[in-house]
C-alpha cells in the first residue's frame, strides 16, 4: 500500500483557515484539497493564499476538487467550456496530484445555483459522463476521479451506483473518492448494512477518502423517518470514524484521507476545537491501520491508451427532462404537488424510474434544490 496522507479541505474561507491554522503550525497537515472552482466571487486571490497553495504544490501534496462542472448536464454550456479553460490555466499555475469532481448534474439554470442530484443510469448518461471526464483529463493532464454521491432516489440506484462509477472511469483509468459520510447517508436512508454496500463498490479504484459531518432532517412524507443529509456543517460522527476503520485497509491504492467541513460550521471556537480533535482521531486511525512498511502504489490512475474526445455529446431529451425535474423540485408548492407533476412529466415510465423513488427522498430533493437556488 502507498503511504496514506492525512489532509484537509482548505479553501479561501476565514473560518476554515482559522480551524486549519493550529494544525499547520504543528506541521500535521500532509496535503490540502482545494476547491479550485469555488472562487468565482473572488476578484483576486490574496498572495499569501497563493503562497500556501504553491508550497503544497511544490511538494506534490496539492489535490484539486471541483464542485460546479455539472458532469451529467445533457446540454453543453459555455460555462462548462469556461470551467475547463480555468482548470487548464490553474493546472499551469499549480501542480495537482489529481483532480476530482462531484457525481450528478446541477439543478437550476444558473451555473452556480443548483443542487448536485442523481441521474438515470442509462447508456446515454454513461456516454455523456465519459465524454466529460475525457475533457477534464485533457485540461488537467493528471489523474481524474469522481466522488460517490450522498443522495439517491431509490434503493435500486444505491445498488447500481458503484458499478456505474466503475464503467464511467474506465476510459480515463480514473479513481474514486469514497466519501464515507456520503456512504453513511446511503446506509441510513436505505437501511443497508455496511458489508452489503461495500460489496457494490470497486474499492481498488479508491485513491482518496473523505470524512465529514452532516445533519438530520425529519420527513413529512414518511412520518417518523429521519433523513441523513450531507450538509458538511458539523463534526464527524463516530459512525463515520468506524466506517474509516473498516474501509481503510480494503483500499489498496488509497493515498489521501481528507477531513472536510464548511466554513459556516466552523464559526465558533468550540466547533474549531472539534475540527482539531476530529483531525487527531483521523490521524490515529491512519497510523494504526496503515501497513508497517508502506510502499509506492503501482496504480497511477493515468490512462494507459487515451483517445481524445470527439464532438461534444449532447442529448436533447435528457436535457429537457433535467430542466423539467429541476423546475418541479424548485417550484412545486408541496410534496403531493411534486408527485402529481412528476407522474404527468416526461420522466414518467422512462429510464429515470421515478415510479421507484422513495417519497422521503423526493421530499429531500425538493429541500436540496430550493436551498441551492437561494444561494
Characterize this entry briefly.
The protein has 375 residues and is of the alpha/beta class.
Can you describe this structure?
It holds the Pfam family MbnB_TglH_ChrH. The protein contains 12 helices and 12 strands. It has 375 residues and is of the alpha/beta class. Strands 1-2-3-4-7-8-9-12 form an 8-stranded parallel barrel, surrounded by 6 helices. A two-stranded antiparallel sheet has the order 5-6. It has a two-stranded antiparallel ribbon with strand order 10-11. Helix 3 (78-93) runs parallel beside helix 4, helix 4 crosses helix 5 and helix 10 (316-331) packs across helix 12. It is globular.
Defining key terms:
43% helix, 375 residues, alpha/beta, 13% strand, two-stranded antiparallel sheet, single chain, TIM Barrel, 8-stranded parallel beta barrel, globular
CATH fold field value: TIM Barrel
Amount of beta strand: 5-15%
Please tell me the overall pLDDT: 93
Please mark out the parts with pLDDT under 50 across 5 or more consecutive residues, or reply none.
none
Summed up, the domain count is: 1
Order of helices and strands: EHEHEHEEEHEHEHHEEEHEHHHH
Structural class: alpha/beta
Major β-sheet annotation: 8 strands, parallel, barrel
Number of strands: 12
CATH superfamily: Divalent-metal-dependent TIM barrel enzymes
Helix content: 40-55%
CATH C-level label: Alpha Beta
Our measurement of the CA-to-CA distance between the termini, rounded to an integer number of angstroms, reads 41 Å
Assigned CATH architecture? Alpha-Beta Barrel
Pfam families: MbnB_TglH_ChrH (PF05114)
InterPro entries: MbnB/TglH/ChrH (IPR007801), Xyl_isomerase-like_sf (IPR036237)
Amino acid at each position: 500500500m502507498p503511504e496514506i496522507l492525512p489532509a484537509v479541505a482548505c479553501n479561501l474561507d476565514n473560518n476554515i483557515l482559522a480551524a486549519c491554522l493550529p494544525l499547520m503550525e504543528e506541521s500535521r497537515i500532509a496535503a490540502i484539497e482545494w476547491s479550485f472552482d469555488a472562487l468565482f466571487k473572488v476578484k483576486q486571490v490574496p498572495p499569501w493564499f497563493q503562497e500556501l497553495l504553491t508550497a503544497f504544490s511544490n511538494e506534490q501534496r496539492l489535490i484539486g476538487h471541483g464542485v460546479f462542472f455539472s458532469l451529467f448536464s445533457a446540454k453543453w454550456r459555455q460555462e462548462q467550456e469556461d470551467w475547463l479553460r480555468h482548470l487548464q490555466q490553474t493546472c499551469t499555475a499549480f501542480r495537482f496530484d489529481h483532480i476530482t469532481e462531484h457525481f450528478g448534474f446541477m439543478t437550476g439554470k444558473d451555473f452556480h445555483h443548483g443542487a448536485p442530484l442523481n441521474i438515470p443510469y442509462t447508456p446515454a448518461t454513461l456516454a455523456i459522463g465519459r465524454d466529460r471526464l475525457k475533457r477534464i483529463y485533457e485540461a488537467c493532464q493528471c489523474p481524474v476521479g469522481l466522488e460517490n454521491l450522498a443522495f439517491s432516489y431509490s434503493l435500486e440506484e444505491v445498488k447500481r451506483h458503484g458499478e456505474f462509477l466503475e464503467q464511467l472511469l474506465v476510459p480515463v483509468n480514473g479513481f474514486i473518492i469514497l466519501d464515507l459520510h456520503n456512504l453513511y447517508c446511503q446506509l441510513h436512508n436505505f437501511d443497508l448494512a455496511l458489508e452489503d454496500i461495500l460489496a457494490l463498490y470497486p474499492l481498488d479504484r479508491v485513491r482518496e477518502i473523505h470524512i465529514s459531518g452532516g445533519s438530520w432532517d425529519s420527513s413529512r412524507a414518511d412520518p417518523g423517518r429521519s433523513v441523513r443529509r450531507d450538509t458538511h456543517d458539523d463534526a464527524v460522527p463516530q459512525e463515520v470514524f468506524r466506517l474509516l476503520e473498516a474501509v481503510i485497509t480494503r483500499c489498496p491504492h488509497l493515498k489521501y484521507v481528507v477531513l472536510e467541513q464548511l466554513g459556516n460550521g466552523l464559526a465558533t471556537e468550540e466547533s474549531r476545537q472539534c475540527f482539531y480533535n476530529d483531525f487527531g482521531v483521523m490521524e490515529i486511525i491512519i497510523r494504526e491501520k496503515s501497513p508497517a512498511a508502506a510502499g509506492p502504489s503501482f496504480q497511477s490512475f493515468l490512462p494507459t491508451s487515451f483517445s481524445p474526445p470527439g464532438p461534444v455529446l449532447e442529448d436533447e431529451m435528457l436535457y429537457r427532462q433535467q430542466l423539467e425535474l429541476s423546475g418541479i423540485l424548485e417550484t412545486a408548492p408541496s410534496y403531493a404537488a411534486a408527485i402529481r407533476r412528476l407522474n404527468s412529466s416526461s420522466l414518467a415510465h422512462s429510464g429515470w424510474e421515478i415510479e421507484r423513488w422513495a417519497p422521503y427522498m423526493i421530499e429531500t430533493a425538493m429541500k436540496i434544490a430550493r436551498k441551492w437556488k437561494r444561494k
